[in-house]
Every structure is written in structure tokens, then in C-alpha cells.
Design brief:
By secondary structure, the chain is α/β, with parallel strands linked by helices. It has 16 helices and 14 strands. The strands form 4 sheets. It has a 6-stranded mixed sheet with strand order 3-4-14-9-10-13, with helices on both faces. A 4-stranded parallel sheet has the order 7-6-5-8, sandwiched between helices. A two-stranded antiparallel ribbon has the order 1-2. It is globular, with a radius of gyration of 19 Å. The N terminus is likely disordered.
């Protein structure tokens, strides 16, 4: 029987959060993943590893990132006060560097020569290419043709950092297919490489490992918010695709009397292929080696998905998020493209902060929730900055009014 972890703990020894997660692997990958599990458990409590990672975060990444009171935006919105955890101020421009430096350090510990990964919005790809350059490793990033066109600045960054960018031209040519392609590349060269999954998804131990590397976000934010205000926020929220930035923030607050919201992309609407709101419209299934809520066709295959945010258009979601939904501890809500666009420009014009389109989903819900709350405070994980999205924004949304 699978043990149910309490809030903020888990998974069990088989990689399950409740009934979600696990390892659904081809036989040839069972040994490589067992080696990753063993190596991670060896270094997770190793003082030398932890000290090196902390030094990297302080001197290379620029941590801690601040919590910022978006006072002008809050006053214009007419509700509760909105605070932003500024993960956009990380080196490389997003939260992804938190786990990429950890995965790179693990790869060095294991004696691997190459990092292989997928990317959607390109932030994970840039962060992993950065880690590879830092640690002197090769890097191969798989990216869908659609996302390559949408995220041209990040493609250039990856190449400048020395990474090989592999275009993925099958299927919908977005994030799901990029994961498929990266898995195939890893399968062909697992002795010399490690697959550095870009979110709290995939087979065990990646949902655990990425969460652990990302939880610095929530630990910092909780301490900073208490120091700034003397109390905890009434609510916190973050966007959810695979769910790494959200899990990083949520973990520190799970046992506090704080409402928690994960914001999914509703895209153009509720029709199949018009959104990527997995928690709202998915059902239990298996994708990329783990069990989760999944947007799927009648035959169980992943359904087509869409979001204006390349980092959110994934048909699955992290298994710990699924468990938190079922337990009722976290509420998962949606944000449409139009709501995202409105929040994007409001944050730009009110605070001088250009957010990633992914992060603008969380800002949009925070604006709505703050008006509903009328008083108190809500903390948003501003997971990335919008440099990467400029071409897409100007072409599709213009420059606002």
C-alpha cells in the first residue's frame, strides 16, 4: 500500500506522492535512474555539497532574491496588497537556475560529461546551458520548432553559452514533444550523460529533486515577508505548467494558515487544444515515466494543448501538485490569454517590471483575488522576466495602450 505523505514531505521510497508519481521506465533506464537516486540521496545531506551550492547561489546566481511590495499596482487595483517574490532577478532571468545549478553539481559528482534537457519557453534551456558552462560540461537542449520561433532570444542565449539546440519537428512541436526527444537522446547515451528534467515532473527522483532545489524560493520568501510585515500573507499564488516555481514557493507555506493557489493556463477557452489547464480538465494518466493528472484523448494519449506561454503548454503536471489538489490543500484555478495580457501590461506600466508571460498568469489571478479579498495581502511568485517574450508580445499584443 502506498503511504500518503503529509504536507511538505514525501515522496515515499517508490517515488509516489499519494497515488501520483512513481517510475514508469523502459528496462534499460532502470539502472541509470537507480544510480541517480542513490547519488542524490548521498549528496542531499552532504555538508560539502550543500556549502558549494549555497556559495553558487550567493556569488553566481545573486540570491537571495527580494520580496517586493507592488504598492502602485495594489492601490490601482483597489484590493488587498500584492507582493512579488522577484525570481525574475535571478541570473539568467528566472527560477530555473535554482535547480539547474543543483543538477549540474550532481552531474559533476556522478562523473557525467553531458547535460541533456528539454525546454519550452527557453528559460530552463538557458539556465542549464549556463550550468554546463559553469561546470565545464557539454549541453544538449531539445526544443520544439514552435517554441524556437516564439523564443528566439533564448535560443541565441543557449547557443552563445555553448549548448547544442536540437529542433523538434514532430507532433505539435512544443514542450511535450521536446521532452519526448530529450528522453530518446538520453536513452541513447545514458552512460555519459544525465537528463536534467526542467520541472517537478518525470520519473522519481526528479519531482523530489527539483522541488528540493527550488524550495529555497519559499524559505526565503516566508522569512522576508515576516520581516517586512510581521505576519504571513493571507494567500500565495504561482503559475503552474509542470509546476517547479509553484512547488518552490508552496513548500514553505504548506503547514501555515495561508491560502494557496496554483494558476493554470486557460488559453483561448475550454475546447480541447485551446488550453493547458491540466488540473481543471485532466484525469489520471501516465506521461514521460510518471503518473499525474493528464489532458488526454479517449485512448489515453496526451491531448493537444495550447498556451500563449511556452513554459506552460504541457499536458501533464507535477505529481506532488496532484496530491495537493486531491488533499484540498492547494486550489488550482485558471487564467485566460486575455487576462494574462491585461496583467502583463498593468505590471509593466504600474511598477516598471516586465514579467515573463508565464508569470503574468499568476499576477492576473492575484489581481482578481486581491479585489475579492479587499484587504490583507497576497504573495506572488514572479518566476521570470519578460525579455524572452518581447518579439511575441509586440507581434501579437502590440505595446499596449
Amino acid at each position: 500500500m502506498i503511504a500518503k505523505p503529509v504536507h511538505g514531505q514525501g515522496p515515499d521510497e517508490k517515488g509516489y506522492f499519494g497515488k501520483y508519481g512513481g517510475m514508469y521506465l523502459p528496462p534499460q533506464l532502470e539502472k541509470p535512474f537507480a544510480e541517480i537516486i542513490e547519488a542524490y540521496h548521498r549528496i542531499a545531506n552532504d555538508s560539502a555539497f550543500i556549502a558549494e551550492l549555497r556559495s553558487i547561489r550567493k556569488t553566481f546566481q545573486g540570491r537571495p532574491t527580494p520580496v517586493y511590495h507592488a504598492r502602485t499596482l495594489s492601490l490601482k487595483n483597489g484590493g488587498a496588497h500584492i507582493y512579488l517574490k522577484r525570481e525574475d532577478l535571478n541570473h539568467t532571468g528566472a527560477h530555473k537556475i535554482n535547480h539547474c545549478m543543483g543538477e549540474g553539481l550532481l552531474a559533476k559528482f556522478m562523473g557525467k560529461k553531458k547535460l541533456i534537457a528539454e525546454t519550452g519557453a527557453g528559460q530552463h534551456g538557458v539556465a542549464l546551458a549556463t550550468a554546463a558552462a559553469y561546470f565545464g560540461l557539454e549541453c544538449e537542449i531539445h526544443m520544439g520548432d514552435v517554441d524556437i520561433a516564439k523564443q528566439a532570444p533564448n535560443v541565441t542565449r543557449m547557443k552563445l553559452l555553448g549548448a547544442k539546440v536540437v529542433p523538434v519537428s514532430f507532433g505539435l512541436r512544443t514542450l511535450k514533444e521536446a521532452v519526448d526527444s530529450a528522453f530518446m537522446a538520453y536513452l541513447a547515451d545514458y552512460e555519459n550523460s544525465i537528463y536534467c528534467i526542467g520541472s517537478v515532473v518525470g520519473p522519481h527522483p526528479f519531482p523530489l529533486m527539483v522541488r528540493d532545489f527550488q524550495k529555497v524560493v519559499g524559505i526565503e520568501a516566508r522569512e522576508q515577508f515576516l520581516e517586512m510585515t510581521g505576519q504571513l500573507p493571507e494567500a500565495i499564488c504561482a503559475c503552474v505548467g509542470g509546476g517547479s516555481n509553484a512547488m518552490g514557493l508552496f513548500t514553505a507555506f504548506l503547514n501555515d494558515p495561508v491560502a494557496i493557489y496554483g494558476v493554470e493556463p486557460l488559453g483561448k477557452g475550454t475546447a480541447v487544444g485551446d488550453h493547458a489547464a491540466t488540473m481543471s480538465y485532466g484525469r489520471e494518466g501516465i506521461i514521460h515515466g510518471f503518473k499525474c493528472y493528464l489532458l488526454q484523448n479517449d485512448d489515453g494519449s496526451p491531448a493537444p494543448v495550447y498556451s500563449c506561454a511556452s513554459g506552460l503548454d504541457y499536458p501533464g503536471v507535477g505529481p506532488e501538485h496532484c496530491h495537493l489538489k486531491d488533499s484540498g490543500r492547494v486550489q488550482y484555478v485558471t487564467c485566460s490569454d486575455d487576462q494574462c495580457k491585461d496583467a502583463f501590461f498593468k505590471l509593466c506600466r504600474s511598477e516598471g517590471i516586465i514579467p515573463a508571460i508565464e508569470s503574468a498568469h499568476a499576477v492576473a489571478y492575484a489581481l482578481e483575488k486581491a479585489r475579492e479579498m479587499k484587504k490583507g495581502s497576497i504573495l506572488v511568485n514572479l518566476s521570470g522576466r519578460g525579455d524572452k517574450d518581447m518579439d511575441y508580445v509586440v507581434e501579437n499584443w502590440g505595446i499596449g495602450e
